């Protein structure tokens, strides 16, 4: 089993419910086990400011799926939750699932870049990730704590538990 981390983001159509639905879907992935989920965080939009705030979280799984098979599954969940692909960069969406880390693998293909190219600068990824994996070291050798220490919070706040508690 490979340890993987998946980022969850939503800012349309009841984002808290979308995030929880996505977590429930991750728990049913084939050849995989959902191990842990961060709290749900409220975050200010990165990109165009004229869009609702986001709900973000990070999940930790074990999987036997290969990286592309896992990406297929993540995109299937996005579509099942009404994701419509638009041209606007960083525009609003019902659900975004990004593969942050796939064990220590480094992947640079047209369809998949791992570690996710934006994760080192995004407070809405780093803080939830640090909540569930505080001693994580990235494949490049950088400790997560170092990235968290230099990352502005931009108003990021814990909103709720992942399961509605
Ligand atoms: N690590 C990754 N996780 C998810 N998708 C990825 C990854 N690396 C590359 N991609 C590719 O990125 C494409 C576009 O993804 P998407 O539209 O969700 O981008 P975005 O969420 O708007 O922006 P960003 O990638 O900056 O978060 C996907 O079709 C997928 O093939
Ligand atoms: N706060 C926040 N902003 C975003 C997010 C996100 O998940 N959280 N996702 C985006 C598209 O990838 C664009 N902007």
From TrEMBL:
Keywords attached to this entry: ATP-binding, Folate biosynthesis, Kinase, Nucleotide-binding, Transferase
EC code(s) of this entry: 2.7.6.3
Pathway as given in its UniProt record: Cofactor biosynthesis; tetrahydrofolate biosynthesis; 2-amino-4-hydroxy-6-hydroxymethyl-7,8-dihydropteridine diphosphate from 7,8-dihydroneopterin triphosphate: step 4/4
Alphabetized InterPro entries for the sequence: Hppk, Hppk_sf
GO molecular function list: 2-amino-4-hydroxy-6-hydroxymethyldihydropteridine diphosphokinase activity
Functional summary from the UniProt entry: Catalyzes the transfer of pyrophosphate from adenosine triphosphate (ATP) to 6-hydroxymethyl-7,8-dihydropterin, an enzymatic step in folate biosynthesis pathway.
First-tier enzyme category under EC: transferase
Native species: Aeromonas sanarellii
Family of this protein: Belongs to the HPPK family.
Domain called 7,8-dihydro-6-hydroxymethylpterin-pyrophosphokinase: residue spans: 89-100
Record's protein name: 2-amino-4-hydroxy-6-hydroxymethyldihydropteridine pyrophosphokinase
PANTHER family the UniProt entry points to: 2-AMINO-4-HYDROXY-6-HYDROXYMETHYLDIHYDROPTERIDINE PYROPHOSPHOKINASE
Presence of the UniProt keyword Kinase in the record: yes
Domain of life: Bacteria
């Amino acid at each position: 089993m490979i340890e993987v981390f998946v980022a969850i983001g939503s800012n349309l159509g009841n984002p808290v419910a979308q995030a929880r639905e996505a977590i429930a879907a991750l728990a049913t992935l084939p050849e995989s086990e959902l191990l842990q989920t961060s709290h749900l965080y409220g975050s200010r939009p990165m990109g165009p400011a004229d869009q609702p705030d986001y709900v973000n979280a990070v999940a930790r799984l074990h999987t036997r799926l290969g990286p592309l098979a896992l990406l297929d599954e993540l995109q299937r969940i996005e579509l099942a939750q009404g994701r419509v692909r638009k041209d606007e960069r960083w525009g609003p969406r019902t659900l975004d699932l990004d593969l942050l880390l796939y064990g220590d693998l480094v992947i640079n293909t047209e369809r998949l870049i791992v570690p996710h190219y934006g994760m080192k600068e995004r407070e809405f990824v780093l803080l939830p990730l640090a909540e569930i994996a505080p001693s994580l070291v990235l494949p490049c050798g950088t400790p997560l704590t170092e990235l968290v220490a230099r990352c502005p919070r931009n108003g990021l706040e814990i909103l709720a538990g992942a399961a509605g508690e």
